[in-house]
Amino acid sequence: MSPHRALQQHAAEVRRVTWWGLIINLLLSALKFAGGILGSSQAVVADAIHSLSDSVTDVAVLVGLRFWSKPPDESHPHGHRRIETLVTVAIGLLLAAVAVGLAVGALRGLRRLDLPSPEWIAFAAAVVSIGSKEWLYRWTVAVGRRARSSAVIANAWHHRSDALSSIPAAVAVAGAAFHPAWSFLDPLGALIVTLFILQAAWRIVKPALWELVDTGAPPEECEEILRLAEETEGVTNAHALRTRYVGPGMHVDLHIEVDPEITVREGHDISEKVKSRLIDQGPSVIDVVVHLEPEGDEGD
């Protein structure tokens, strides 16, 4: 199967899971808003806003997918996968902004002396959210890993952070509903929710930012690439390795040494074997440029 055909198949799967995620997020947002308002729970209302922000990232993935799934062209010879990286950063920054807004509201709630006691309907809404969003996380992250899509995996973690944030919300509502004097637990639970969201935001943004500044592969992956190249028949040494990420895939540039007496055709065939082996067996390698050198004449 050609790389472009595989990309299109993955795009269809990504589109399907993201549409389902959008629908479920909108339904959960409405459910938690209703449960939080009717049940007088600030934590559950905050959790509803988190679910609503999930809907925004679903839309970002659906829109971005139309662009990053395009094949390479004259203007973008390396493809369009950096668009996916930008979408990933946008998702993380949006999560962080949501967390800050929720934290401000929670701190204001903690200063109130007349906090209403939450009702059990708010607890029920939070429990439904935990189960739904954990299931959606597992489905989405599986699709993201198959498609090697950082944006889809980031969106999956957005779902997981929503599921995790519903846990302290549910605990806070249950505690405050059971004992009215503990009503302060509700805004405290909302504040804990923000910590989960900020952690998820950093986990999403950090690798995407490193990719945008062309950070190379970690040492263990570089060693694996050199080992695979040197074990290819006809290669006596591999060096001058350079790597960078374009979207979820790695572009590799390296030099190999071969017998100086072989023909150009034989040298070309060896370089093609190295390229095929790295793409088939290397760590997320999608493109390779191989430079040939005569044995014993290692360049700078």
Describe the structure using short key phrases.
single chain; Alpha-lytic protease prodomain-like; 3 strands; 300 residues; three-stranded mixed sheet; elongated; mainly alpha; 2 domains; Alpha-Beta Plaits
How would you characterize the overall build of this protein?
The protein is mainly alpha-helical and 300 residues long. It folds into two domains: 3-212, Up-down Bundle (Alpha-lytic protease prodomain-like), CATH 1.20.1510; 219-294, 2-Layer Sandwich (Alpha-Beta Plaits), CATH 3.30.70.1350. The chain is 69% helix and 10% strand. The protein is built from eight helices and three strands. The protein has helices at residues 3-38, 42-68, 82-110, 120-147, 150-178, 185-212, 219-230, 264-281; strands at 237-246, 249-258, 285-294. A three-stranded mixed sheet has the order 1-2-3, covered by helices on one side. A hairpin with a 2-residue loop joins strand 1 (237-246) and strand 2 (249-258). The chain is elongated, with a radius of gyration of 25 Å. The two termini are 37 Å apart. 43% of the residues are buried.
What's the topology here?
Layout (H helix, E strand, L loop, with lengths): L2 H36 L3 H27 L13 H29 L9 H28 L2 H29 L6 H28 L6 H12 L6 E10 L2 E10 L5 H18 L3 E10 L6
Parallel strand pairs: 2-3
Antiparallel strand pairs: 1-2
Helix pairs in contact: 1-2, 1-4, 2-3, 2-5, 2-6, 3-5, 3-6, 4-5, 5-6
